[in-house]
From TrEMBL, chains A, B:
It comes from the Eukaryota. This is NADP-dependent alkenal double bond reductase P2. Residues 14-113 form the Oxidoreductase N-terminal domain. The keyword Oxidoreductase applies. The lineage of its organism: Eukaryota, Viridiplantae, Streptophyta, Embryophyta, Tracheophyta. Keywords: Oxidoreductase. Residues 159-292 form the Alcohol dehydrogenase-like C-terminal domain. InterPro entries: ADH-like_C, ADH_N_2, GroES-like_sf, MDR_fam, NAD(P)-bd_dom_sf.
Amino acid sequence: MADGSEKNAVVSNRKVIFKDYVFGFPKESDMVVTVDKNLKLKVASDSKDILVKNLYLSCDPYMRLLMTNRSSEIFGPYTPGTPITGFGVSKVIDSRNPEFKEGDLVWGITGWECWEETEQPKQSESTTGMPGLTAYGGFYEVCAPKKGEYVFVSAASGAVGQLVGQFAKLMGCYVVGSAGTQDKVELLKNKFGFDDAFNYKEEPDLNAALKRYFPEGIDIYFENVEGKMLDAVILNMRVHGRIAVCGMISQYNRDQPEGVHNLMSIVYKRVRIEGFAVFDYYPQYSKFLDFILPYIREGKVKYVEDIVEGLENGPAALIGLFSGCNVGKQVIVIAPQ
Amino acid sequence: MADGSEKNAVVSNRKVIFKDYVFGFPKESDMVVTVDKNLKLKVASDSKDILVKNLYLSCDPYMRLLMTNRSSEIFGPYTPGTPITGFGVSKVIDSRNPEFKEGDLVWGITGWECWEETEQPKQSESTTGMPGLTAYGGFYEVCAPKKGEYVFVSAASGAVGQLVGQFAKLMGCYVVGSAGTQDKVELLKNKFGFDDAFNYKEEPDLNAALKRYFPEGIDIYFENVEGKMLDAVILNMRVHGRIAVCGMISQYNRDQPEGVHNLMSIVYKRVRIEGFAVFDYYPQYSKFLDFILPYIREGKVKYVEDIVEGLENGPAALIGLFSGCNVGKQVIVIAPQ
């Protein structure tokens, strides 16, 4: 169906509905794909909404947090019975909002459905911004790296980790990554240029593994997983080391977190552990683009996406994040532009 | 015995000997007081040692760490069969070291014995420096406080905590302290000028207690205890809060630390947790004295010491730190000057 004809069309709109709050590991059956028939692709004349066709959806670990009904958190949870949401790229099909016109590409928080009518204007930036800016803010600002320092990245083949490792190499650091399959380990060493990498699932003693890869200790740890890995890393930090924490994927599916037991070592070693969130770095977005785009054009920074086609395959792709099925950034293509 | 006569005297030297490495909660019987007879109070003519009379000894929580044989730590452990050591003030009785002369007052790492012959020159500063500089570096440098912020101090009547609370008030912060007896709570409110204080032993739900004292949340937590208190504080931190960690007294006597389970919240709130040690701030010692001495002279900063007389009472005083027996800085007077 060509764009020009869509405007007057009536379509069936597929949606991924969040069924109910999740305990423990999420399952595909925590979501259900429904179809609303007879959606008119036109905004009513008395409305100020825009109507978009959703093109790409991003699967990100933080989405698991929204599946739990915890009032103490700063992100609101999903509402059972409505579509789940996440970052996405969309195309404006019809608009009664003067800020947007037909054909505009927009990005921002997007419902997991094929078409979406919304009052909320979206950002008009690239969707790759979120993990990229996370890596940029977390590494350069929170970790304050210096040339020659020893850097460890967990979940290193993921959307954020692969960039952190490459930024560390650009800075002249020694960088080792961990991942959950041998293929990912090879990717880290051969595509992303990590100095070394290991499969954490094959290391019965993470403390011993880290001592092997970092006999001098670790200056910077870019933390994506928490749990046993963080406990092992803390024991291997150097004096005045820094740990940047943007996620703790190993803990998202636990009702009772494992706990971290070696915090005493942060006193001995005077270590800083700092949580951060990408939205604190939104003001630096254009500075980040000025930094990264030349490297991407020259092929000096590489980026791997794991692309799944079709909204109906979205639930499986999202669940797969938590068992490490994705290689790189997990994206769902609903409709190629 | 007057100083003048000591030089030619022969004395009995009492010592507090560390018996063996400690597991769990230390006991008085982990130390033993012995007496060496016939110590001549004169340095041999072919030596470069100094001989001191120890006057004051400091009891500090970190000393528990030296009772455990853990090779991974940056402080070496005590040697079984030798006197325990800690900060102390001494007077030079005889010296073959040209840097020191008879009658000098010196401070530094001191053996727990009445007289001590040593090659190691000691610092010649005030013994109140250690906790004072800890409070100063930890609060002003690590916590980076701003006027009007909400500050929570645990172990607040202790040597470090009482100063942190007063520094926070000087800065124009709102400060609440926790302690383990009602008397200490009164001291915090009435002597040290904390805005409020509570007895953590009477709070079955620390999270609820903190929500009551900090309905707006906590900007700065000066951490002295770890364990359940840290877990509760993390849940109550405000966005971009800071936690300075100089000790974790609740964990020193555990072979298996309790663990901290709410670290995910440091991501939601973008909180910084930073370990620090007083020796990183030694270069700022004279700046610290310039800052604190006028306040002490004017009575605007108060300091409470808990003084025990007699070396033989040292083991009980040291053990008492871990059950909160002391009120303020625990000092042992061996010989009033």
